[in-house]
Amino acid sequence: MKRQILVGLSTLALSLVSAPAFASEVAAVNQQSVNIANQITPRNLVTRAYQGSFRSQGIPRAGALDFAARRGRVTAEDLVNVAIAQGRLAPETINDRGYLNNVESFLDNLDEN
After folding, report:
1. Which of 39, 60, 46 has the alpha carbon at shortest distance from 105?
2. All residues at 6 or more sequence positions from 48 whose CB lies less than 8 Å from its CB, including other chains
3. Do 13 and 32 belong together in one domain?
4. Tell me: the pLDDT tens digits for 42-64?
5. Can you tell me the distance from the alpha carbon of 104 to that of 52, in angstroms, rounded to the nearest whole number?
């Protein structure tokens, strides 16, 4: 009987210890899902900048954005950092060369849209 009580208490103690760890893993996965759901495409990022969605962050709109991008005053990294600050991109996106190249390509072709 003592053995069963000891096993039961040990099991209970282990479940109490592992529950918070499991909960934090679930929270991390949920946060990652939220980040993925909020991801903005490179094209939409540049389109939103062009439409003036980031003026309050110092990103010009329309022709001024095209001019600033051509002069190197607004870069793909600038737009990605604004989107990260708004929670529209995961912070690690700033290191994603493919994403940055796509944003840069859309910036380079603003006058063709």
Report:
1. 46
2. 40, 54
3. yes
4. 999 999 999 999 999 999 999 99
5. 17
24: domain range?
Answer: 1-38
102-111 tens-digit pLDDT: 999 999 998 7
Q: What is the DSSP string of 39-92?
A: ---HHHHHHHHHTTTTGGGT---HHHHHHHHHTTSS-HHHHHHHHHHTTSS-GG
- d(CA 102, CA 80) in angstroms, rounded, equals 11
Query: Do 80 and 68 touch, CB atoms closer than 8 A?
Result: no
Least Cα distance to 86 among 44, 29, 28 occurs for: 44
108 is written with which tokens?
Answer: 């380079």
Instruction: Tokens for 13, please give them.
Output: 């103690």
Residues 51 and 18 in one domain: no
35: its two tokens: 């980040």
